[in-house]
Amino acid sequence: MFLTFLLSQNSLRNAIEHNLTYQNTQGIVKTKPMGDLILRFLNHQTHHQGQDSVLLSQAGQHLDSTDLLVLIPKSYLSYPSKAPNP
């Protein structure tokens, strides 16, 4: 529901659809939609969650969760019942 609320906001939709132009480490200029880059960032973060879990398990430690949504207090995840007027 929160994601639906966010995507209903034109400014966020425009930001996700905005093209970002950057230069990679080889000097090649690339242009990608910001939404694709955000998805890549989130997937990479998931990769590191897996690494953390494996390393801690190998060290004999119990890890309840590496899920960011579990670690964020619920008060930060609430949203207004009505979308604000732009």
In short:
It contains five helices and two strands; from the N terminus they run H-H-E-E-H-H-H. By secondary structure, the chain is mainly α.
Give me the secondary-structure category: mainly alpha
Tell me the number of strands: 2
Q: Structurally, how many domains make up the residues?
A: 1
What is the overall silhouette? flat
Mean pLDDT: 76
Strand order of the largest sheet: 1-2
Unreliable parts: 81-86
User: What percent of the residues sit in helical stretches (DSSP H or I)?
Assistant: 40-55%
Q: How much of the residues is beta strand, in percent?
A: 5-15%
Distance between the termini: 20 Å
| Radius of gyration of CA atoms, rounded to a whole number | 18 Å
H/E series, N to C? HHEEHHH
Care to describe what's here?
By secondary structure, the protein is mainly alpha-helical. It has one domain (2-77). It has 5 helices and 2 strands. The chain has helices at 2-7, 10-17, 34-58, 68-71, 74-77, and strands spanning 19-23, 29-33. It has a two-stranded antiparallel ribbon with strand order 1-2. The radius of gyration is 18 Å and the shape is flat. Residues 81-86 have low confidence and may be disordered. Keywords: Metal-binding. Pfam families: DinB. InterPro entries: DinB (IPR007837), DinB/YfiT-like (IPR034660). A divalent metal cation binds at residues 44, 48. This is DinB family protein.
